[in-house]
Amino acid sequence: MIKSLFGYANTTKSIAKSGGWNIYDDKFKVASSDEYGNALLPIDKFDPNLSELEIPSPGFPPSHKLIKSAKNLISEYDYFRNSTPKSIWISGTNGKTTTTKMTEHLLRDRGAIMGGNVGIALGDLVGKKAKIWILETSSFTIHYTKFASPDIYALLPISDDHISWHGSAKEYENAKLKPLSMMREGSVAIVPKCYEKIKSHAKIIGYEDEIDLANKFNIDIGRIDFRVPFLMDAIMALAIENIIFSTLSIDLLNTFIIEPHKLEELRDNKCRLWVNDTKATNIDATLQALARYKGEKIHIILGGDDKGVSIKKAIVAAVNQGAKIYAIGSNCDEITKIAKSLNAPVYNAKTLDNAVNLIDKMMEKDDVALLSPACASLDQFSSYAQRGDKFKEYISQIL
Fold it and tell me: What is the pTM (predicted TM-score) of this model?
């Protein structure tokens, strides 16, 4: 019988190092092999009747031909469940990456290492012999997981996202909540208060907001250096530390440096403030960015791949704050139409460089120019990071 991998990206490449796999990917047009002796095959060569096991790259949607035909589909979390030490899964719509990195920052010297969606792929984590795995966990991975479950599940707030992948907002929410039904006695879940009554073998700790969560763990918010939206991430990381070690290393947490592309503040050659928030790929992230600069005169760049979610809510929020809107990406015409219906100042820039040029001409000294697109980037860029890098490049060229 054959073991199958769907896709040839970081997740599956780390598994493929063991050899003996058939790997199917849309980009393979003819059969070949890799350095580990795995067969690299076009997707039409997959025979579900000959495959005993299928592990997809998390990005493969349920609608994909390979997923629909697979009979023995599991996630990489399932595949490595017997090799996993104490595990922390961190999920939610926004803040997963920052919370995961903050948690590793707090626990690194106590044998923890991060992986999953950020850091090291699970196939490579196995050989690290860490005592704790801190895994940024996407709704895609959870969707395919059938057997594995975390010792601690930290769920940040949920808002609509990835609807085109999951099929509906409800299915996206269901994926985020799925681990609760799979967790064991002795495990702990920290979840938004609206989910605290869900049946689970885990001990569930519900929270309303940052202040409530801090109170639950006796965390002194006044000692934390991070502002919204990073405050929630910081408190969640401290809560995880407290559950495992009964400590709160706030001074250590305050030495953590926020990653690029998330509310990254820059100054152009005229000393005006530009904010690179390219990682805001959904509405909630953009709402948080707007809230951070409430009271300021804002020029906001919106648009890209909306992943099947209308971003009208983000447009309305921008309009309510008196922001000028610059539409880019594949949904720029729709954004322009909605903004005009609200009698808002909007410019159909279409591309990021045009948006920056337009803002440069209209921006006054104390204004804030904000790239917080509420959309993914793949319609015009290779990644959100490339979009952010280009944004910074265009700003550096302003004279």
Answer: 0.82
